[in-house]
Amino acid sequence: NSREFITKYRSCRRQVRERSGEADHHEGMSSDDELTLTEVTEFQKSKDNVLEDSRKIFEDVHADFCDIRKILLKFQEWKEKFPDSYYDAYISFCLPKLLNPLIRVQLINWNPLEQNFTELEEMPWFRAIEEFSDAKNVSETK
């Protein structure tokens, strides 16, 4: 939906430039200052719809399986109780693929170009992974 909006938006701007005879335009170098109020409103509405849909993704999932901290605690328990099985299953290779969808949902609204954006290191999922990694390093040194 947002790709269609952007494509439509760019083609409209291109047509306006062609009609006005603007010759010094370089593709990809335009500014968002040219956005009309209608276009900004449409974009915000589309963004709000995406955010609303993203809140529903894990609606029917048990909390133990959509909270990164709880998932990592389960893996930590497995590693402590059955280390041979844990390492034989190559869990360190599986975790990024497992956590990827959960992290992506949390990053949908993240925009590092905004003035008041949250640093990745301050996000709860990042801290949970960091704590899990620290626990992993501590147990490996034992």
Automatic annotation (TrEMBL):
One Pfam family per UniProt: GCFC
Domain GCF C-terminal: residue ranges: 69-131
Superkingdom in the source lineage: Eukaryota
Gene Ontology biological process: mRNA splicing, via spliceosome
InterPro entries in the cross-refs: GCFC2-like (IPR012890), GCFC_dom (IPR022783)
Subcellular location: Nucleus
Molecular function terms, GO-annotated: DNA binding
Record keywords: Nucleus
Keyword Cell membrane: no
Gene Ontology CC terms, in alphabetical order: nucleus
Family: Belongs to the GCF family.
PANTHER family per record: GC-RICH SEQUENCE DNA-BINDING FACTOR, INTRON LARGE COMPLEX COMPONENT GCFC2
Record-given protein name: GCFC2 factor
